[in-house]
Amino acid sequence: xGLFIVNIHGDIEGDYxxxxxxxxxxxxxxxxxxxxxxxxxxxxxxxxxxxxxxxKEEITILETKSKExxxxxSERLPEIGSYVLVFLKDGYIGTDDYFSYGxxxxxxxxxxxxxLPEPYVEKGESL
Length: 127
Hints:
Elements: H1 12-21, H2 31-67, E1 71-72, E2 82-88, E3 93-99, E4 102-103, E5 110-115
Antiparallel strand pairs: 1-5, 2-3, 2-5, 3-4
């Protein structure tokens, strides 16, 4: 269905100029059309909320996995004051504090480190 212009004044060119100034001349729509569009937008919003939660979960998983890998000391050092897992030159694994002067107990024997995992918590319990 197109847009119909009824010319009452007999000035076709003047009416045409007025119509050109209307940003978007939309044909008349039934109320049901608006209801359907509103319902569609609500569905899209629900999907977006679902995706948002799913992406948050995926980010959490990836952040956890990134924390579970050994980081060579030649690549990056822990934050000062951190207590971390350390991998030593002789193949042993331990824990150590990292201070401004370096690792506290194992000094120069540390070749890689990783953050400590979250403590285990039984379902329904909290720390």
